[in-house]
Amino acid sequence: MSSNRTENPVILGLSNQNGQLRGSVKPAGAPGGGGGGPQQQQLNQMKGTINGNSQPAPPTNAIIKPGDDWKKNLKLPPKDTRIKTSDVTATKGNEFEDYCLKRELLMGIFEMGWEKPSPIQEESIPIALSGRDILARAKNGTGKSGAYLIPLLERIDLKRDCLQALVIVPTRELALQVSQICIQVSKHMGGVKVMATTGGTNLRDDIMRLDETVHVVIATPGRILDLIKKGVAKVGQVQMIVLDEADKLLSQDFVVMMEEMLGFLPRQRQILLYSATFPLSVQKFMNAHLQKPYEINLMEELTLKGVTQYYAYVTERQKVHCLNTLFSRLQINQSIIFCNSSQRVELLAKKISQLGYSCFYIHAKMRQEHRNRVFHDFRNGLCRNLVCTDLFTRGIDIQAVNVVINFDFPKLGETYLHRIGRSGRFGHLGLAINLITYDDRFNLKGIEEQLGTEIKPIPGIIDKSLYVAEYHSEGGEEVKQ
């Protein structure tokens, strides 16, 4: 199965920068489309709103009476039979029910397809429920969102019509994703009001929304600080604040805003920090603002076990040809291709569409509604290939992505780690391929040493069992075709 191809590709919307360049587009799962099979099942679960406002959950018809087996009434997604690595399977054997969570919350958890807690969830949930501050390091794609959303939702008091929890994230796309997960998990809880607010959207809509009851706000730093300063977001009763991708939020880009925002919050509040990497800026923030935090470190090694890493040594002029060869030889379900600048993203997306492959692109200079549409459509499987900048490296969880390609190799190990973490999500298998020029050779060696990982030369034929889900069953055996 190679990527979508047609002899006469049509390029749509390059002039108005909507980010969607198409060869011939078919929905994922259709013949010649963008990837069906087990990984598509996860995509279908994640359909949701993209305007940042919560939507009322569909009414649940089944009334659960005392003594009923409530699990029989759950609408569970298809079981995910792909093999998983020890990144998510090396648990203590706990169940979600062991944490004495509300039944309605458990219903949402199981209907998300979350069967058992991952290691970061096992470590985090009971501590967070106790009200203690947490500093947690865990790999990309191992369940950090669930690790903080579950205790956050358990502690929401629906009798209080006020804002009780903040989740701060560095990018607009991640805010939309986390809010969708939060809405899904809380849909049986009888009225938890969740709101996403980000820059690039209409401030008046947010003001009107906050005039009503909101319990949980998921936000980017600039927008929530603006709403707090205007007196619109009333944070006087916020009991929990989560910094997801904390290293980015506490970098020079955001740290001043984060410090200012904390000044508006109650002194008695719980702070949860989650990230894959923790530079000195996080340590400084922790010392200043956290009260005897419980530290979790599940990062004995930095890279995901399920992601196989290769490099191809090329000249700059050979990169597009090499990419074309990869598209024709790899069994791509969905791929994310990284470039180092917005301009190169658009140029490469145009080249890919001219080669006959359907392609979306996304970067920070696009209009927000176009970014939202690209993000929503790609995660729902409407296109197989996405070209992007590092905007898309933070926390974005698209289960169907099994191949990441660094068209431009990054300079920082931290950037590399977050990029390749877009494949092999939640312990599954994935492929990371790096196009390396003569100028990249020292960066390649440096990143290998910094991350303690090995990036191997690309072989002539890549074993499909390394990255294609259909070649494995849950027991780790190859599936007979």
UniProtKB/TrEMBL annotation:
Gene Ontology MF term list: ATP binding; hydrolase activity; RNA binding; RNA helicase activity
Domain Helicase C-terminal per the UniProt entry, residue ranges: 306-466
Protein EC: 3.6.4.13
Short motif Q motif, span: 94-122
Main location: cytoplasm
GO cellular component annotations of the record: P-body
Matches recorded under InterPro entries: DEAD/DEAH_box_helicase_dom, Helicase_ATP-bd, Helicase_C-like, P-loop_NTPase, RNA-helicase_DEAD-box_CS, RNA_helicase_DEAD_Q_motif
Enzyme class, spelled out: hydrolase
One BP term from GO: response to heat
DEAD-box RNA helicase Q domain residues: 94-122
Alphabetized UniProt keyword annotations: ATP-binding, Cytoplasm, Helicase, Hydrolase, Nucleotide-binding, RNA-binding
UniProt-listed SMART domains: DEXDc, HELICc
Catalytic reaction(s) noted: ATP + H2O = ADP + phosphate + H(+)
One Pfam match: Helicase_C
Biased composition (Polar residues): 43-55
Annotated family: Belongs to the DEAD box helicase family. DDX6/DHH1 subfamily.
The protein's name: RNA helicase
